[in-house]
């Protein structure tokens, strides 16, 4: 059974005429006659009563018409939705964002993207960069705006900007006047860290272990504002991207003697067939992060 046969059958059933159906569809009448005959042979039923002056549906034809109408309607709807996707009038992007990038970089990108593609939806999932790599490799997310791993066999990576992780203490902390500090000096401090799925947490704990101690973790949180308030009130120290801390009051950021330079970028699974919506987001990020506006934002905050 061919889709063309269903179209011919529908036209004949509505116009009660092979001739008028052929004129409407701009095909030769014999083509329609042959197609309908083949359809009846395949279904092993007679769809039309041809004994009268006009073509009339049989009871079997009336039943078949109900299903054909639904099929043609669904196909037309599918074609319309595909056209919307092609023209960026519809589409969903599953995007992962870590807390730090969500608080720092994503709002600027989100605003520009929604202005450029108002009909595309971003379904955002907040996870740490460490966990995000697995989610992307497993295909649970389309894209991730993350701290990029140094290398990955399974991900395509688009670098966006660079930053560094710094120590954050309250303005009254004993180290607040220091220009640089080593993690080996922090053994007696109380640490407030991002949760276990974050890149920063893994790096900090690894460095502490290298210096022969396990950090005293007072609290773990994925909420940047919570961490900020606790640190500003002198309840502990933390480690965050330098770009986040520039405009904070009551908190002092100090560079580490063991530099923790990071690259923030967009990542997605290699060899995955990305939707047009996801491709649009990648293209937007590529262009936006080369713009003067983005450069000014980064220079102001880093």
UniProtKB/TrEMBL annotation:
Signal peptide: none annotated. It comes from the Bacteria. Residues 1-58 form the HTH lysR-type domain. It holds the Pfam family LysR_substrate. GO terms for cellular component: cytosol. InterPro entries: HTH-type_LysR_regulators, LysR_HTH_N, LysR_subst-bd, WH-like_DNA-bd_sf, WH_DNA-bd_sf. Keywords: DNA-binding, Transcription, Transcription regulation. One of its GO terms (molecular function) is DNA binding. PANTHER family: HTH-TYPE TRANSCRIPTIONAL REGULATOR YBHD, LYSR FAMILY TRANSCRIPTIONAL REGULATOR. Belongs to the LysR transcriptional regulatory family. This is Transcriptional regulator, LysR family.
């Amino acid at each position: 059974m061919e889709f063309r046969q269903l179209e011919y059958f529908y036209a004949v059933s509505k116009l009660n005429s092979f001739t008028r159906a052929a004129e409407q569809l701009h095909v030769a009448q014999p083509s329609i006659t042959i197609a309908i005959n083949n359809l009846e042979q395949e279904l092993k039923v007679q769809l039309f009563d041809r004994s009268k002056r006009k073509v009339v549906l049989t009871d079997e034809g009336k039943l078949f018409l109900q299903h054909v109408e639904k099929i043609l309607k669904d196909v037309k709807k599918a074609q319309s939705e595909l056209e919307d996707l092609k023209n960026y009038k519809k589409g969903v992007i599953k995007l992962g964002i870590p807390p730090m990038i969500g608080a720092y970089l994503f709002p600027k990108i989100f605003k520009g993207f929604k202005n450029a593609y108002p009909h595309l939806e971003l379904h955002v999932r907040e996870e740490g960069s460490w966990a995000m790599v697995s989610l992307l490799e497993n295909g649970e997310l389309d894209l991730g705006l993350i701290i990029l791993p140094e290398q990955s066999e399974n991900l395509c990576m688009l670098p966006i900007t660079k930053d560094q992780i710094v120590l954050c203490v309250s303005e009254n902390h004993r180290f607040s006047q220091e220009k640089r500090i080593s993690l080996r000096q922090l053994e007696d401090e109380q640490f407030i860290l991002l949760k276990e799925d974050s890149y920063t947490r893994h790096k900090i704990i690894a460095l502490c272990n290298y210096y022969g101690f396990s950090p005293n973790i007072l609290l773990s949180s994925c909420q940047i504002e919570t961490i900020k308030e606790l640190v500003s009130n002198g309840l502990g120290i933390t480690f965050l991207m330098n770009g986040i801390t520039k405009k904070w009051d009551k908190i002092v950021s100090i560079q580490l003697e063991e530099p923790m330079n990071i690259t923030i970028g967009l990542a997605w699974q290699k060899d995955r067939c990305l939707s047009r919506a996801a491709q649009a987001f990648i293209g937007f990020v590529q262009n936006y992060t080369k713009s003067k506006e983005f450069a000014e934002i980064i220079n102001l905050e880093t």
